[in-house]
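Re-running the complex after MR caught last week's input typo. The corrected sequence lines follow. Everything else is unchanged.
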Amino acid sequence: MRDAMGRVSVVVWKDLLTEVRTKELFGGMMIFAVLTIITFNFAFDLTGTGRAASGAGAMWVAFNFAGFLGLGRSIALERDRGSLDGLLLCPVDRGTIFLGKFIGNLLFITLVELISVPIFGALFNLDVIQATLLLVLVLGTVGFAAIGTLLAVMAASTRAREVLLPVLMFPILLPVIIASVRATTMILTHETGDLLPWLNLLGAYDVLFLAISYLVFDRVVEE
Amino acid sequence: MRTSGARGTQLANLGLVLGVLAGISMAIGLYLGLVYAPMDAVQGNAQRIFYIHVPMAWVAFLAFFVVFVAGIMYLWKRELIWDQVARSSAEIGLVFTTLVLVTGSFWGRPIWGTWWTWDARLTTTLLLWFIFLGYFMIRAYAGDRGRAATFSAVIGIIGFFDVPIIYLSVNWWRTLHPQAVITLSGAAMPGQMVWALMVCLLGFTLLYAYLMVQKLAIEQAKDKLIDYQFALSEREAEGVTAA
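Corrected-run output:
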């Protein structure tokens, strides 16, 4: 068990180190997320009374777009330099590699969220510093990263690559988007009475799709 | 060689029988739905689209379930036949999902006064359509046969688990955010309507089976052709090196 954890953390460490040296992922995702939120300001009225509801939607769309960007880039880095083949040659379980890549993606996306949420709160005058919001961010991002890590590996070995990932992911991800946006709206408006069913939905989605992705990853990377 | 030929003939015979049965039961179903069943008191004749709309939805979900089971079998056994079953069923499923969306719109327009509403059933069917579309996109772009089979099997499995969750989440999204939700009255149907529906369901299920047999034969022929082309190009390459 401890060995397995160690191996997973080596894969995560590799991704973090690559990012520190290349700086190709985080900065781009970060700027993209903030720019998306700023653009939404002109599409919707994010300063009026309904700003919590449309703001939550704008925020999650921004995170998802930035997430697609990050997932695509992260797997492209692996493929361009042949490091995915190297990883697969390592004498470890393929599930370990999946978990490592998943945690790496999760860390990058969560970090982008953690930094852009306060900016978002300041720009639109919303009360975003709340513990429950952090929980929603984590639950929503785990589901995104679990299914995203699997589908990104698949999409990257096809001819369409970047185009295919969002096309495959959006319909499958819809429950996560609905639940995260609803829960975030409730938290931002301080009406948290119906929050629990949405958190349960997010949690169940996370567990189910993490398990499926873990199980089929082996088959996918064989191709 | 003889056995595979005999099996081919058997399959063709089965297809013929299924096709004839599907044709007969659908003709009877149409008669029952259009003539025998009484006119709906509230919706008038527009309600009669029900007798093809519901069986189409049933076939779409049945096809999707077959894609799911065949996908698991393919990932487990790695046998080409399971992929042939899955892709045949997925194509029929995509066609029927499209038909469900179109006939539903035609029905919704006179009864609800709108072509579309974001109700759980409609939204879920639309997303099911998109998942099928993704299924064929990843097949088209995958490049090689094994990769296409594996990737699409994964999409089929994920989609199958996802559809109930999509339904649940859209339903909650609606109920926790109340709006004028349109539902069909749950009142019991007259016996004639039930009969018409049952016969149509049978007819469309037979149609699915018939289409599956036909489609499977086509997919197997396609794969065989690819194998022959591959063998031929290899032989030609050998010929070049020998000369």
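None of the earlier attempt is carried over here. The radius of gyration of chain B is 22 Å. Residues 178-183 of chain B have pLDDT under 50 and may be disordered.
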